[in-house]
Amino acid sequence: MKQKILIVEDEFIVANDLRIMLEKAGYKVCGIAPSVVKALELIASKEPSWILLDIFLQGDKTGIDLAAQLTGMGIPFIYISANTNQGILEAAKATLPYGFLVKPFREKDLMVMLDIARYRHEQNIKYNQNADSSIHIQIEHILENEGTKSAKLQEFSKLLHPLIPFDFLWISRTVPHTTTKDITLLKESNESFRLISNDELLKETGASARDFKTWNIARIPTNGKSIFNGYDFRRLRMESRWIQHLSDGYKLESALVAEIAKGEETFQIVFFSRLSDVFSKVHTGIINQFCKAFELLIDKALYAPKQDTTNKTAETTALASPPVQKKISPVPVNDFHGIIGNSPLLHNALKKIETVAPDDTSVLILGESGTGKERIAHTIHKLSPRKNKSFITVNCAALPLTLIESELFGHEKGAFTGANEKRMGKFEQADGGSIFLDEIGELPLEAQVKLLRVLQEKEIERLGGNGTKKVDVRIITATNRNLEKEVAEGRFRLDLYYRLNVFPIELPALRHRKEDIPLLTLHFLEKYGKKSSAKVTSISPAALATLQTFNWPGNIRELEHLIERTMLLTDGDVITEIAYPDTNPAAALADDSGSKVKTMEEMERDHILHVLKLCKGKIFGAGGAAEMLNIPSTTLNSKIKKLGIKFEFVK
After folding, report:
1. Which residue in 26, 233, 315, 344 has a CA-CA distance of 20 to 30 Å to 441?
2. Is the peptide bond before 176 cis (omega within 30 degrees of 0)?
3. Domain ranges of the chain
4. Which of 155, 141, 165 is CA-nearest to residue 91?
């Protein structure tokens, strides 16, 4: 039976072109809807199998709003949009679509995306994956977990910021009105968020307590609106002295207002931005999808018991100085194939591993550096029917630009200068087994095209060859990059992203699973106790408590290296003191001046920019940037593209 597709698109010409393409390919188009209201009518009467969904539609509702209802109905959908900025892609991702097609597109692009989407939908049904997106799970974990109110709010803001780009967040109970439980968060220059008390707010804005009490007397006068850009925001300033004062103090230019009702109480959540035209209907759709998260935030933050900082300090002091003779010794740890931990977020990832390992489905492992992505990939292979075949690891970031195709797909003799013999590529070496492509976000666009073909056709073509060769390879990929951002900036193919993202496994950062630090510490004590001459066999409760105060930007790898180094520096058999490189764990990513320490990529970008400016933008030839950096001009061009360096920056 032909699959019925509903097109939800407000541009008739685009919708009609889609209809012609689909009918030519054998699909049945059961209708065209220009708005969410019309789409819901057609869904009820036509019962489509699939929906092609534009984001910006006629009326007040967007495709983001409709997407939440489609997920509830169990109807798979693909977005079609001309907008691919990071915010839109993040918002789209949160609604769990099966694909994203960028306008304008070719007929071939549409068919490929439908094939990928159909495959992903089949896998989703097969594995019965949880409909909740990972961001909902992470928010719930952050708010339910132990920790200070400030820490919870900061982590919540970091997760939400890619979806709603705000610089200032204000949450207030408006019915009945009170300011005693207001929450105010400010985005700092180092991408972190700072919780501001009412007293601090008055001091920073220069307002008196009397002014605050007079001006902040009721809810923001929204008059049914939620988006305040440009003129609307200026009018809002005139209607609210408090908004006027806030915007003057923090240079705010636009606002997005959400109202959350809980029983007889009403709360206003206001996102402010320093940009004048940043919020759109898409963001209201996102807010509608995160209502439960906001309700949980209100429960855990506004109504959280007020913490006694005096008692907390005393408690911390007590933890820091227990009797030295007390110690915690290694005990047998129940691990999952070498993966240590009992936190809910880790268990969620392990459950996914057990589910997907026996199959041949492509897996995308997401997580920060040091979270153990390669170990997860190896575990998936060990638990699969391919366990007795090859497991080939490829670090895409380490492949020389000129040899990527040769390394991955092999080459024939004479294919290029220096190719003196035929060479088997990594995919052929992995035939019958699994290949792990680490740092897949580093793969150049040219190689991405060929990888997509391997995924779809299950065949490779050697460099310089005339024919193709079938390969039976399970592909596991990993990245610490934000692939949606890479797609938005044109460095990663959208169709490849959706093809790889069939079964994502997100590994939590160590700062989100601090309850696992004791188990990991004991594991590393046992591991290095066997390998080294160190006499250390245990750790004191005080030292263990100290480990749990750090933010661990390097994650498990950083913890492991610290334990190994501490064991070598410890006299005796008990670790009683942790010499962490940064004495201020809250500023683990900051230098002495308080500025954020730059990543290697940021430093490389700054250095290349500096050299380009010295060379006045010249790349090739004598006196060019490539010569000064002592690298091939092709490599420099590739880095310039990857790092997003544009000509206008080189001035």
Report:
1. 344
2. yes
3. 4-127, 136-307, 308-337+508-585, 344-506, 600-649
4. 165
